[in-house]
Design brief:
single chain, alpha/beta, 4-stranded antiparallel sheet, translocase, RnfC_N
């Protein structure tokens, strides 16, 4: 028998739970649109991983966790993503927020699931990550990411796991229906969470005694296991996390702490089932059991709803009578909130949709002045002083509010429920909490700004000090340099004139830059050869000129080339001869002589050179043999090679039949080219215009034939240059046709 402790305060409002428990768990059709907010949990919103137009399957991830303190969002049915935009959110503010909108295709095609029936074969950390990626968040109403609670810090050893099946809020029976219909899954969820938490000493499921059927079902399912099923007297708000801990363990969570700090983890029974299904069956969180209740409905029951289903669709499926309803409330009458539109969707924390009539849940009367009766203090389950908190909230005295532990208020609404003046106390507390949080944020921003400003001022001062130090160092160095220069001047005495020194240095550089006579002559000879080539080229172009304008330009180029050639020849004639003993000049002369030799002369010179080298090699070999040197073999090999080369040269000389052409020195190619160009230019100058055109036609015909032949060869070979060759041939053909036309008209 589990020991039960009492909690302070509390109230007993009408339960109104039987209305929704008369019918079994129901199901409704899919809506035309599923609207899935990216933030259905506490913490950072999820980040979309799909785009508009994408087709998705049931259970597919459509938004990944936006951080460690976040949860994934999955497609609750197969279909197509038709929008990612702001839609109204299920929140007291009525604000809109980012949502992924899916148009179901009616097929409800699932992704391939990855079940893990033997989860004890895996490490707890892997299973916690699986739960995180399945998008499991607290389904009791808070929406705290489940994976965070199942991974306590190393300094938080857990000795007690509590599953919360209290469901103390009036009208709500979603957990009651779950425990009645699926008790085995609740027990399996408890076992899974116990494994993930390192098998705590106690695992207890707390249920108020107004749910006897659920208690009986769970005790039957837990028979033979150490899991405790603890029933305790009904009182609102026994389902609060801290209140339930006190009821079942007698311990209290200190102000500013969390249950894990005292070794306890509390999870909702629906959350435990969702975690078990995510691990064992591989199913992400895509639906939940929601109580649909109120006198404005024809049917009141619990229904399993796909997440993202608009509230209006759920109400329509239960015969909603808008004229009869006083308002639509998400949650219960104590902690729920009214919504302005039925377009808001069912999310992971939607445990109840309440559509009361005017008589069932009338609007609260206008607030009156506080009469200081103290009933709110008697009803507070957190042992606070609601009256003082109310006055300090109205005065915006944040220091007093924090001193009176405003943040220990669980906003259960018990104080407002018993208030004879109908003061909406919770609204004041909630607003004051928001103001304090905002003030803290502003203070942190101001502190950071002040720190940044102080750091900036310090940095500027440091930079100025560094600059001043550098300026002082430069001034000191300049003074030292000036003093040193003055000392040098005083000790200079008969120092040489700096101008004369510079002139002498320039003359020395000029003298070192002068070229030797050999280098000058070689350079002039290269210039002579280049000038002769340019003259020949200019004369060639003159001979091919087609118009008088072109001929005039070519004659000017020929004249310029002749002048340049004459100038180089004059410089070469005036160049100094190299000294007779200059080895460089001797080598150049030998090279020139060799270039002017006939083949027979070259062969005789080669034989003479080889004979001389052979004599020297034989002498070295004889000396090495006498000295018994280690290089005898190498020298012998060299002698043999030279003797073989000499024999080959002598045989070639013996078989050589000199001709007149062999004995004749080679013609000067440049001079010959010049002479040919001059002759051609003279012949062309003597031609009439008609003869010139005929010659041009003949030349173009030859060139066109060659171009067409190249084009044909390229086409046969599949060359990449076919287009270029075809273009060139077409140009030549056009030019030939034009020239022929001019010839005919001449």
């Amino acid at each position: 028998m589990t020991q039960i402790w009492n909690i302070p305060g509390g109230i007993h409002p009408p339960e109104n739970k039987q209305q929704s428990l008369r019918a079994p768990l129901g199901h409704i059709d899919l809506p035309a649109e599923l609207v899935l907010p990216l933030n259905q949990h506490l913490g950072a919103p999820a980040e979309p991983v799909v785009a508009v137009g994408d087709n998705v399957k049931t259970g597919q991830v459509i938004a990944q966790p936006g951080g460690q303190f976040s949860a994934a969002v999955h497609a609750s049915s197969s279909g197509r993503v038709i929008a990612i935009e702001d839609r109204p959110l299920p929140h007291p503010s009525g604000f809109a927020g980012p949502c992924i909108v899916i148009a179901p295709d009616g097929l409800d095609t699932w992704i391939n699931l990855e079940p893990c029936p033997d989860y004890r074969a895996q490490e707890p950390v892997e299973l916690v990550q699986k739960i995180r990626l399945a998008g499991i968040a607290g389904m009791g109403g808070a929406g705290f990411p489940t994976a965070i609670k199942l991974a306590p810090k190393a300094n938080q050893p857990i000795d007690t796991l509590i599953l919360n099946g209290t469901e103390c809020e009036p009208y709500i029976t979603a957990d009651d229906r779950l425990m009645r219909d699926r008790p085995e899954q609740v027990i399996e969820g408890a076992r899974l969470m116990a494994y993930l938490l390192g098998e705590p000493d106690r695992v207890v499921i707390g249920i108020e005694d107004n749910k006897p059927e659920a208690i009986a079902a769970l005790r039957a399912a837990a028979e033979g296991s150490p899991i405790e099923i603890a029933g305790f007297p009904t009182k609102y708000p026994s389902g609060g996390e801290k209140q339930l801990i006190t009821i079942l363990t007698g311990r209290e969570v200190p102000a500013g702490k969390i249950p894990a700090d005292i070794g306890i983890v509390v999870q909702n029974v629906g959350t435990a089932v969702a975690a078990w299904r995510a691990v064992v069956r591989g199913e992400p969180l895509i639906s939940r059991i929601t109580t649909v209740v109120g006198e404005a409905l024809d049917v009141q029951r619990n229904v399993e709803v796909r997440l993202g289903t608009p509230v209006a669709h759920v109400l329509a499926a239960h015969g909603f009578q808008a004229a009869k309803a006083s308002r639509i409330v998400l949650g219960g009458p104590m902690m729920g909130y009214a919504i302005e539109t039925g377009d808001v969707p069912v999310v992971k924390t939607t445990n109840c949709i309440l559509a009361p009539s005017q008589q069932e849940l009338p609007a609260p009367p206008p607030a009156q002045a506080c009469i200081r009766c103290g009933m709110c203090s008697e009803a507070c389950p957190a042992s606070l002083l609601p009256q003082q908190l109310y006055w300090y909230a109205r005065a915006q005295d944040h220091e007093k509010l924090e001193a009176y532990n405003l943040f220990d208020c669980i906003e259960c609404g018990a104080c407002a429920y018993v208030c004879p003046s109908s003061i909406p106390l919770v609204h004041y507390y909630r607003a004051a909490k928001g103001d304090i949080r905002q003030a803290q944020v502003d203070k942190e921003k101001a502190d950071r700004s002040r720190e940044r400003f102080a750091f900036r001022q310090e940095r500027i001062a440091r930079q100025e000090a560094e600059k001043e130090a550098k300026r002082a160092e430069r001034a000191k160095a300049a003074a030292a340099a000036k003093a040193k220069m003055a000392e040098k001047k005083s000790n200079a005495g008969t120092a040489s004139d700096p101008v004369a020194t510079a002139i002498a240095k320039a003359k020395a550089q000029q003298a070192s830059a002068q070229q030797s006579p050999v280098e000058q002559r070689a350079k002039l000879e290269r210039q002579l050869s280049a000038a002769q080539g340019r003259l020949a080229l200019a004369q060639e172009k003159l001979s091919q000129a087609e118009t008088e304008e072109q001929a005039e330009k070519c004659r000017a180029a020929v004249k310029t080339a002749e002048i340049k050639l004459t100038d180089v020849q004059q410089k070469l004639a005036n160049a100094k001869d190299a000294p007779k003993d200059d080895p460089v000049a001797a080598a150049i002369e030998r090279a020139k002589a060799k270039l002017t030799m006939s083949p027979l002369e070259k062969l005789n010179a080669t034989i003479a050179t080889l004979s001389e080298r052979l004599q020297k090699a034989e002498a070295k070999l004889a000396q090495a043999q006498t000295e018994q040197s280690a290089h005898v073999e190498a020298l012998q090999l060299g002698v043999d090679k030279l003797r073989a080369k000499l024999n080959e040269a002598q045989e070639e000389l013996a078989s050589h039949s000199p001709t007149t052409a062999d004995e004749r020195a080679p013609d000067d190619a440049a001079s010959a080219a010049i002479e040919r160009a001059k002759a051609k230019a003279a012949a062309r100058a003597a031609m009439s215009d008609t003869d010139k055109l005929r010659e041009q036609v003949s030349s173009l015909e030859v060139r066109l034939d060659k171009a067409r032949q190249k084009l044909a060869d390229a086409e046969a070979e599949g060359s990449p240059h076919v287009d270029a060759l075809r273009t060139a041939a077409d140009k030549l053909a056009n030019k030939l046709a034009d020239t022929q036309s001019r010839l005919e008209n001449a």
